[in-house]
Amino acid sequence: MPPILQPTRRQFAQGALAGLIAASTNVRGAFAADDIKLGFNGDLSASPSAQSGRAAVVGIQAAIDDLKAAGGTLGRGMTLIIRDDLSQPPKSIQNMSDLIDNEGVVAVFGPTNSGNALAWKQIPNQKHIPVMGCIGSATAITKPMSPNADNYMFRVGSVDRTQVVAILAYAKKNPNTKRIGFLTETTGYGQGGLKDLEEIAALQGLNIVANEKFNVNDTDMTSQLNKLKDAGADTACVWAQGTPIGQVMRSMDKINYFPIVLTSWAADNLTFINAAGPALAEKPIFLRTVSESRNPRQQQFFDRVRPKIDADSAFSFSVHGYDATMLLAMAIKQADATDGVKVREALEDLKGVYEGYAKTYDHPFTKTQHEGLGAADQRWTCWRGGKLAAFSDDVVAGLRPEDFKG
User: Fold this and answer.
1) Are residues 16 and 83 in the same domain?
2) Which of these, 149, 157, 166, 318, is most buried using a 10 Å CB contact count?
3) 57 and 204, same domain (yes or no)
């Protein structure tokens, strides 16, 4: 069978990134000098998650176009200034300071990789610049720097802890799960997920028999998997980016060890199925924020952005980027200003209802809750026949609100 994706990831990244930069340049040229400046700081070319960053930018720019067509925000246009952080924390920190101090942006979107957000979240908090996360899902990203401190980190996207609560509820409910093994990558994303896995497993009283780690660029995880196998793990919880999850599946195939695989939403990334292959890709189950059973309005937006994103699976990040931009614009209008403090306060008490593409938002944030999407907004997902599909079985059907502990 030919590969699912013909161009290489690098070729896709180079072509897509050039298009994003060109689009950003066109937006700059279309608006006046007093445009409201927004920034994007995230990986667009380097890591397995870069396609998610590119898709988010497409969604953000689509929202900017629609706001312009509707008359602008406070009578002004918006400019998106894009910075590729190459998945490198030092570069991401540099980008953040540049966007705020030199470009004068009033808000920042991103990053793609959770570890980078954790590396620089003190910067926007110190400088009072709201951040609208729409890709990175580490639980700690939206936590305040200290108890009761003003918090400028918001998110419209998935949250690791929410996913972990759900997949471990599935494991606890599944009669075939008796012994669980954890397998996580050593990045900030992987280890943030591990922290959630360990905490929620303890709360739910689950039997964890192995806890192994691997590097994000590893291609052979048979040593770690043999330790899970020797411990009798019948279920593996894998927390990693798309490509390494695919390598885990290939490593399982090498030793003919196929436990139940519950994993992070990074398995929806095209890099996962390209690494695993179509057959092995069908084994894990995971959660996403956008169902493959799209409603007519979502389908219309999908048709609009699909030519600009790498794959169908990246659509959810365009949705997150679009909805996050619209919520930010609502806050700016409500505040009648672009001042960071006033915009943060408006976000925490948004008036009115916004019908987004992920959900209908009604007072989505508060002073202490900065997540736009919650447990009720998650969708069980798998791969079938080389395409994402809704997943359901007797365990999913039997899950009840009281099962989601943590």
Assistant:
1) yes
2) 318
3) no
Range of the domain at 228: 160-288+379-403
Are 137 and 14 found together in one domain? Answer: yes
For residue range 102-143, what is the model confidence (pLDDT) as tens digits? 999 999 999 999 889 999 999 999 999 999 999 999 999 999
The string of pLDDT tens digits covering residues 262-317 is 999 999 988 999 999 999 999 999 999 998 888 999 999 999 999 999 989 899 99
* Res 18: pLDDT: 56
Contact 280, 250 (CB under 8 A): yes
- Do 168 and 136 lie in a common domain? no
The answer to whether residue 205 sits within a structural domain is yes
What is the SS3 assignment for 63? Answer: helix
- pLDDT band (50, 70, 90) for residue 4: very low
* In-domain check, residue 3: no
What DSSP assignment string belongs to 302-363?
HHHHGGGSS-GGGHHHHHHHHHHHHHHHHHHHHHTS--HHHHHHHHTT--SEEE-SS-EEES
In a domain? residue 4: no
